[in-house]
Automatic annotation (TrEMBL):
Annotated signal peptide: none
Domain of life: Eukaryota
Family, per entry: Belongs to the villin/gelsolin family.
GO molecular function list: actin filament binding; metal ion binding; phosphatidylinositol-4,5-bisphosphate binding
Protein name, entry field: Gelsolin
Residue ranges constituting the Gelsolin-like domain according to the UniProt record: 29-108, 152-215, 253-329
Subcellular location as annotated: Cytoplasm, Cytoskeleton
BP GO annotations: actin filament severing; actin polymerization or depolymerization; barbed-end actin filament capping; central nervous system development; cilium assembly
Pfam families to which the protein is assigned, alphabetical: Gelsolin (PF00626)
GO CC annotations, alphabetized: actin cytoskeleton; cytoplasm; extracellular space
Source organism per UniProt: Micrurus spixii (Amazon coral snake)
UniProt function note: Calcium-regulated, actin-modulating protein that binds to the plus (or barbed) ends of actin monomers or filaments, preventing monomer exchange (end-blocking or capping). It can promote the assembly of monomers into filaments (nucleation) as well as sever filaments already formed. Plays a role in ciliogenesis.
Keywords from the named record: Actin capping, Actin-binding, Calcium, Cilium biogenesis/degradation, Cytoplasm, Cytoskeleton, Metal-binding, Repeat
Length: 355
C-alpha cells in the first residue's frame, strides 16, 4: 500500500505483485518449488517464501515461513533455522514472518496473482513422496479481508458445509461447486481457480437445491453451519470478533484475538467470548478457573450494554463448553476439526516451544 496507514490497517505491505521464490523443506535442506505450483501448500510440509517489493524508493524483503499442521517437528525446526540463514545471506534486512497453517495473513494470501492460496490436507508434494489424494475430497473456499481467497481441504462430510462459503466436492466420477446463500462472487471465482488446479469440471449447486448424489458423496445429509446471519452477507459490516478472558495476572482481563478465527485461538485454560453480532458466545475451556467462568458471563452482558454501536441489550448470550460446540459456533472458524483437542494441549505447546 502506498499509504502506511492503509498498509497497517489492512496488514498489506503492497498489492501482492512483487517477486517471489518458494522452497519446500526436505530433511535438513530447502528445495525450490516449481513456480507452476506456487500457491499450493501441503499440510505435511513446511515452506519458505521470499517476497521482494518496493515501498517508496526502498527495496523491501519479507521471508514467510509457512508450517503445515502435519509437518514434522524436525522440519518445522529446520524451516526456522533456514529462514534465519536466508536472512543473513540477504544482509539481515528481511522482515521474517512465521505462519502456522490456517493463520495466513492477508498479504500472503494476495501474492498468487488473484488465485487462491490452496492448502491440501496433510500429505506432501515432495518428489517421489507424493501422497495419493483421497478418492472423495472437499475444499472450503473463503475470501479474506484483502479480497484474496483461501481454499482449504477438509473432511468430506456434510456437517462441514457453511452457508457463508463456497465448497468444491470432488468424487471419483464427478465434481460439484456448492454455493452457500451468503457466499461472495470472489469465493465463486476462487472455486473456479481451484477446479483448474484439480483439473476437473464441476456442476454448480445452489444451497437448498442439491441433488441426492451430492449428499451421498458426503456420506448422507447432516446438520451444518447455517443461520440467517451467515446467509445475509452482513458479515462485512459486523465481522465476528473473538476475546480471551483470563485472570492469570491476578486480575480479570479481556483481550481481543487478532486475525482470522482458527480453533488454535481457543485457549483451553481460559474463557473466550465470540461476538457474531446476532449473539455472543461464552466458550468455556475445560481448564478454565471458576472465577473466569462467572466473570465472563457478567462481562458478556457488560460488553453488549457498553458497545459504542448501541447494541440491542437483548442480544442473546450462549454458554458452550469445550468439546460440545454446536455448528452455529464452529462455523465461524476456518477448517474446524472435531477431534482437535484429543491431542494433549501440553504436548502440542511443548512441540511448538521446541521450534
Amino acid at each position: 500500500h502506498t499509504s502506511p496507514t492503509m498498509a497497517a490497517q489492512h496488514g498489506m505491505e503492497d498489492d501482492g505483485t512483487g517477486e517471489k521464490q518458494i522452497w519446500r523443506i526436505e530433511g535438513s535442506t530447502k528445495v525450490a518449488v516449481d513456480p507452476a505450483t506456487y500457491g499450493q501448500f501441503y499440510g505435511g510440509d513446511s515452506y519458505i517464501i521470499l517476497y521482494n517489493y518496493r515501498h517508496g524508493n526502498k527495496q523491501g524483503k519479507i521471508i514467510y515461513t509457512w508450517q503445515g499442521a502435519d509437518s514434522t517437528q524436525d522440519e518445522i525446526a529446520t524451516s526456522a533455522f533456514l529462514t534465519v540463514q536466508l536472512d543473513e545471506e540477504l544482509g539481515g534486512i528481511a522482515v521474517q514472518k512465521r505462519v502456522v497453517q490456517g493463520k495466513e495473513p492477508p498479504h500472503l494470501t494476495s501474492i498468487f496473482g488473484g488465485k487462491p492460496l490452496i492448502v491440501f490436507q496433510g500429505g506432501t508434494s515432495r518428489e517421489g513422496g507424493q501422497t495419493s489424494p483421497a478418492p472423495t475430497r472437499l475444499f472450503q473456499v473463503r475470501s479474506s479481508t484483502s479480497g484474496a481467497t483461501r481454499a482449504v481441504e477438509i473432511s468430506p462430510a456434510a456437517k462441514e458445509l457453511n452457508s457463508n462459503d463456497v465448497f468444491v466436492l470432488k468424487t471419483p466420477t464427478t465434481a460439484y461447486v456448492w454455493v452457500g446463500q451468503g457466499a461472495s462472487n470472489t469465493e465463486k471465482s476462487g472455486a473456479q481457480e481451484l477446479l483448474n488446479v484439480l483439473g476437473v469440471r464441476a456442476t454448480q449447486v445452489a444451497e437448498g437445491r442439491e441433488p441426492e448424489s451430492f449428499w451421498e458423496a458426503l456420506g448422507g445429509r447432516a446438520a451444518y453451519r447455517t443461520s440467517p446471519r451467515l446467509k445475509d452477507k452482513k458479515m462485512d459490516a459486523h465481522p465476528p470478533r473473538l476475546f480471551a478472558c483470563s485472570n492469570k495476572s491476578g486480575r480479570f482481563t479481556i483481550e481481543e484475538v487478532p486475525g482470522e478465527l482458527t480453533q488454535d485461538d481457543l485457549a483451553t485454560d481460559d474463557v473466550m467470548l465470540l461476538d457474531t453480532w446476532d449473539q455472543v458466545f461464552v466458550w468455556v475451556g475445560k481448564d478454565a478457573q471458576e472465577e473466569e467462568k462467572t466473570e465472563s458471563q457478567r462481562s458478556a452482558q457488560r460488553y453488549i450494554e457498553t458497545d459504542p454501536a448501541n447494541r440491542d441489550r437483548r442480544t442473546p448470550i450462549t454458554l458452550i463448553r469445550q468439546g460440545f460446540e454446536p455448528p452455529t459456533f464452529t462455523g465461524w472458524f476456518l477448517g474446524w476439526e472435531d477431534d482437535y483437542w484429543n491431542v494433549d494441549p501440553l504436548e502440542r505447546a511443548l512441540a511448538e516451544l521446541a521450534v
